[in-house]
Amino acid sequence: MDLSYLNESLSGDSEMLRQMIQLFLDQSPKKIALLKKNVIKKDFNAIRETSHFLKSSFSIMGLESKKELSKIEQLSTQQEDYDTITILTEKVLNNFDESAAEYKKIMSSL
Predict the structure, then answer these.
(1) Quick one: pLDDT at residue 68?
(2) DSSP reduced 3-state for 42
(3) Which residues fall within 8 angstroms of residue 68, CB to CB, at 6 or more apart?
(4) Which of 10-19, 21-30, 49-58 has the lowest mean pLDDT?
(5) What is the tens place of the pLDDT at every residue in 65-90?
(6) Residue 91 · residue 68 · CB < 8 Å
């Protein structure tokens, strides 16, 4: 995770940081589950929409999966290379799990 964007954007406002992290922890698991479900169903349009949403959210929150989400979005738009979409989705899921755990630790220290 890279918190530089959040820290810069929020100018050190710890209450706002807490709110942003909580919003991320509340909303993202649902979107992650939706991405996983859509990949299993091979619903390319839904994969594209969900990966686009997550790409923005992950960028703001400093997660490292922006490149993978961009590629998932591109491939799902083209409706091709399902195997690569699956592999990249697993990377995104793992990154999310690790980052969510880190954000929970941060929350306990704020």
Answers:
(1) 96
(2) coil
(3) 88, 91, 92, 95
(4) 10-19
(5) 989 999 999 999 999 899 999 999 99
(6) yes
Q: Residue 10 contacts by C-beta under 8 Å, 6 or more apart in sequence?
A: 16, 17, 20
Q: Which of 13-17, 25-29, 47-51, 89-93 has the lowest mean pLDDT?
A: 13-17
pTM check: above 0.70: yes
Domain containing residue 28? 4-109
Tell me the CATH number at 87: 1.20.120
Q: Where do the H-state alpha helices sit in the chain? A: 4-10, 14-41, 44-61, 66-78, 82-109
Mean pLDDT, rounded, for 99-105: 93
Nearest CA to 84 out of 98, 70, 97, 66 is that of 70
Dig out the tokens for 84 from the structure: 């690569």
Q: How far apart are CA 92 and CA 84, in angstroms?
A: 12
Alpha carbon of residue 58 to chain centroid: 4
Q: State the total domains in the chain.
A: 1
**CA–CA dist 98, 13 (Å, integer):** 24
